[in-house]
Amino acid sequence: MSRDVAYVRPDTLEEALAFLQDTGRTSRVIAGGTDVVPGLRSGTVNSGYLLDISCLSELKGIEEEEGDLFIGSGVTLTEIFFSKAVARVAPALQRAARVFGSRQMRNMATIGGNICRASPAGDTLPVLYALDAQLELVSASSSRRVAVKDFIRGPGDIAIASEELLRGVRLKETPGIGVHRFEKVGNRKVLAISIVSLAALLGLSDMGVVENVRLAWGSVAPTVVRSTRVEQYLTGRPLTAETLYEVFPLVQEAISPIDDIRASAAYRRRIAGNLLFRLLTNRKTSDSGPGVL
Amino acid sequence: MKTYTQIPIEFTINGKKVSLEVEAGETALKIIRDRLLLKGTKEGCGIGECGACTIVVDGKSVNACLMLAAQLHGREVVTVEGLAEGDRLSPLQQSFVDRHAVQCGFCTPGFLMSSHALLNENPNPDRREIIDAISGNLCRCTGYQQIVDSIEEAAGRLRKEKTR
Q1: Is the dihedral angle over the CA atoms B149, B151, B157, B159 positive or is it negative?
Q2: Is A203 near chain B, with CB under 8 Å?
Q3: B30 contacts on A by Cβ (under 8 Å)
Q4: Which of A75, A167, A257, B35 could bond A220 through an S-S bridge, CB–CB 3.0 to 4.6 Å?
Q5: Which helix (H) or strand (E) holds B110?
Q6: Which of A7, A34, A38 is closest, CB to CB, to B70?
Q7: How far from chain centre, in Å, is Cα A282?
Q8: Chain A: nearest CA to B3, how far in angstroms?
């Protein structure tokens, strides 16, 4: 454990931003700690300031604004899972929160941390991409919005200035979308880093024809993948096994998975396509949460 | 704003107020075990994957190995030492004994704390909710069935105590 770190606990967002203005370059923001603390243990976080934002009430709200939803960056995954507003506007996000880490981690980890960690396997990220989430970044002197897909540049690489803090994430309602899914394949049902994940938002006609579709895959490329070609292909076609077989090659073109300790690239390729077939079952509900023994 | 390498903190643990100074990079687990000498909370993996270090903070189960000691400031903490009243085991602990939910025992404090948090939140959990609540805790001995049975039984005992 490093002795070169110092700790700072601001009482207000304003104080936190003032601190980042002066010392952002040598500061590491910590909220839930589920990522930073293992970093301290392994030595990847070994110097500078730990700016603890876990007490800032300004970052903890879930607010509905004219149908849109604003989720503060300090909101935990447990709070997301139990939020009625999230269940209404972004049911797929609620499902991602359900299969995130473990109960203990969900009680600690925040959505802001999951976004800023920018892991290709981050469980909330495919849903945020599918929802075209807008992030709100603030500093002592500025405030801006950026799309999540422009914010995340690669694994652990985010477009944030040293004086900026993620204040929260803004989600729009999705009229015309009736199916909200988050599917995840991992080595076990809980406490698993995803091998492949898929957020799928679908609007189907009474005849089962795809009218609206947004698909976002996790863990199959340096960042979450959405494919305009895949979505365009599916639009106007019936949601059938045949259609999904046809779109399989387009999915393969869109992704670029790697071999790692969790799975091979070849396995990820197969699963990325196969997860689509889960959309043919239980269209109204998804249940990839912990099972019964 | 003041920055610290030694941070003064005050919090409540098992009903007692404590104040001490901790290092910036120290975990809650380290100070609970090595400073407060409450050795019931175990370190297994140290990275949040095994649940042996589970404690209850402000009513919620968390991994003490993933929490900074400094973040204990102002919080209400319960560790496994806080469950029994004197020599009398809590209903949850007694059920673990009666139902043989303990073999080597290393994971037991973590399971007790995860289930303690569950029963405070939800006095009447079904089997599935119990499994969900302990799914962040690993046990390599029991096969889990006895643990789930114990928590079910404890929930029943607690409900009876309350209605008495």
Answers
A1: negative
A2: no
A3: 1
A4: A257
A5: helix B108-121
A6: A7
A7: 23
A8: 5
Query: Is the domain of A209 the same as that of A159?
Result: no
Angle at B58 between CA B98 and CA B123, to 5 degrees: 40
Cα atoms in the Cβ-side hemisphere of radius 13 Å centred on A13: 17
| Structural domain spans, chain B | 6-81, 91-163
Among A125, A154, A171, give the residue marking a domain's end.
A171
Q: Nearest by CB to B136, which of A33, A54, A190?
A: A190
For B88, the 3-state DSSP assignment is strand
Q: State the Cα–Cα distance between residues A4 and A28, nearest whole angstrom.
A: 13
pLDDT at residue B151, as a whole number: 98
**Rounded to whole angstroms, how far apart are CA atoms B116 and A81?**
20
Interface contact flag, B66 A10, Cβ < 8 Å: no
Tokens 């990522």: give the residue.
A35
Per-residue pLDDT reduced to its tens digit, A38-48: 999 999 998 89
Q: Which of A127, A149, A171 is the last residue of a domain?
A: A171
Looking at the domain covering B6-81, what would its CATH class be? alpha beta
Q: Which residues of chain B have pLDDT under 70?
A: none
Q: Quick one: chain B helix, strand, coil %, rounded to 5?
A: 40, 20, 40
Position A5, amino acid: V
Under 8 Å between Cβ of A73 and A169: yes
Taking alpha carbons only, the member of A10, A120, A135 closest to residue A71 is A135
Domain B91-163 falls under CATH 1.10.150.120: yes
pLDDT at A285: 44
* A71, part of any domain: yes
Specify the pLDDT at position A2.
53
Based on the fold, state whether residues A64 and A159 are members of the same structural domain.
Answer: yes
Q: How much is the pTM? A: 0.94
- Are A27 and A49 in contact by the 8 Å Cβ rule? The answer is yes
Residue of B nearest to A40 (CA): B25
Full residue range of the structural domain in which residue A272 is found: 179-280
**Distance, CA of A141 to CA of A164 (rounded, Å):** 9
Residue A23 covered by a domain:
no
